[in-house]
Amino acid sequence: MGVFASTDDPVSTGHEQVVFCQDKQSGLKAIIGIYSTALGPALGGTRFYPYASEDDALADVLDLSRGMAYKNALAGLDLGGGKAVIWGDPEQIKSEALLRAYGRFVESLAGRYYTACDVGTYVADMDVIARETRYVTGRSVEHGGAGDSSILTAWGVFQGMRAAAEHVWGTPSLRGRRVGVAGLGKVGKYLTGHLIEDGAEVVATDVNPKALAWVRANHPQVTLVDDAAALVAADIDVYAPCALGGALNDDTVPALRAKVVTGAANNQLAHPGVEKLLADRGILYTPDYVVNAGGVIQVADEIEGFNFDRAKLRATRIFDTTREILHLADAEGVPPAVAADRLAERRMAEVGRLRTIHLR
Ligand SMILES: NC(=O)c1ccc[n+]([C@@H]2O[C@H](COP(=O)([O-])OP(=O)(O)OC[C@H]3O[C@@H](n4cnc5c(N)ncnc54)[C@H](O)[C@@H]3O)[C@@H](O)[C@H]2O)c1
């Protein structure tokens, strides 16, 4: 067992705080990672996953919490970046006692970290955690929660895509463009609706027959192709990965015919360097964490008392942020992924510095 003896060293990764939590009776083993509170309390979901080792769990929480700091900074939120992992199989060990024990550890951080849903945790779990802590969002509608975050996620992705269209074709519209949507799940379905409304032609794929049936019934004008490989090779203007991570890799980028990539999936770049492969092929990639921030914007709004119109307005600003990133990328001669990181770091440094002005 390697608590604080891991190969991933939080000191060298720049994290503010990493907390190991254990409640032996309920089986809880959790790690809360706080990367930065420069902009405010750290916000990020709790991933409940059967990691192969403690090192894997730690590596994931360090990586994810850092990512949240960048995402929240560019979403314009007054929130820092954090994330938590619960180590174990949720199917086997998730219980009221375990979730409430976890909630008490979140509470012990006195508001430095707000939790929410992620892989393996759901709205109902947040309601249980909330019985022990105030610092939880992403709750059920009955408990003041905002409900389905994919609505604003899809809206934000659409805004990012409009900004990319303006950059490449001169108008912030997808009218007359062929857009390939890979993954017709919660986000992909809403995105397809926005695209059709805007006058785009949608080509799509999914591995789930139910998702395909939904599209056939609701948007019969959508052209369906066999799989993601067929979509990548299709004659499309925009590629929208809305399924799993790693969609942009050494195989797909050379085959891609689209000029723009904008989608909801997290971690679309399979490895560092793929952003350069895209740039070298003249493909404009809008960083995933910028355009898919609608979901976190929604759960962040819930902390204030959810107001859909206010949250939608903020998600609409993903258009302006994407536009700014694309201009910065051109001005500094770097891929948009690098420009986005620079802009996030700038906001954390500039706005975070204001905390040094003493108030009382
Ligand atoms: N829901 C949100 O608010 C939100 C917010 C930010 C990021 N994201 C990310 O966006 C992506 C989509 O999220 P979602 O909520 O729509 O998930 P989802 O599970 O509802 O939908 C994913 C869809 O992709 C399909 N799929 C899986 N593998 C595929 C493959 N190889 N080829 C084609 N289709 C495949 C699934 O069948 C499913 O219909 C995920 O990567 C998620 O992490 C979602």
Structure characterization notes:
With 360 residues, this protein is α/β, with parallel strands linked by helices. The protein folds into 2 domains: 3-67 and 80-143, Leucine Dehydrogenase, chain A, domain 1 (Rossmann fold, 3-Layer(aba) Sandwich); 150-346, NAD(P)-binding Rossmann-like Domain (Rossmann fold, 3-Layer(aba) Sandwich), CATH 3.40.50. Helix content is 46%, strand content 14%. The chain has helices spanning 10-13, 54-74, 90-93, 96-108, 123-129, 150-169, 186-198, 209-218, 228-233, 252-255, 274-280, 288-291, 294-304, 308-316, 318-332, 336-353; strands spanning 17-23, 28-36, 42-43, 46-49, 80-87, 113-114, 178-182, 201-205, 223-224, 238-241, 260-261, 284-285. The strands form 2 sheets. Strands 1, 2, 3, 4, 5 and 6 form a 6-stranded mixed β-sheet that branches. Strand 1 and strand 2 (28-36) form a beta hairpin. The chain starts with 9 loop residues before the first helix and ends in a 7-residue tail after the last helix. Bound molecules: nicotinamide-adenine-dinucleotide. The site of nicotinamide-adenine-dinucleotide has 24 residues, from helix 6 and helix 7. NAD(+) binds at residues 183-188. This is Glu/Leu/Phe/Val dehydrogenase. One of its GO terms (biological process) is amino acid metabolic process. Keywords: NAD, Nucleotide-binding, Oxidoreductase.
What count of helical segments does DSSP give?
16
N-end to C-end Cα span: 44 Å
- CA radius of gyration is 20 Å
Helix and strand run: HEEEEHEHHEHHEHEHEHEHEHEHHHHH
Mean pLDDT: 95
Classify the beta-strand content into a percent band.
Answer: 5-15%
- Tally the beta strands: 12
CATH superfamily grouping of the largest domain: NAD(P)-binding Rossmann-like Domain
| Each distinct ligand | nicotinamide-adenine-dinucleotide
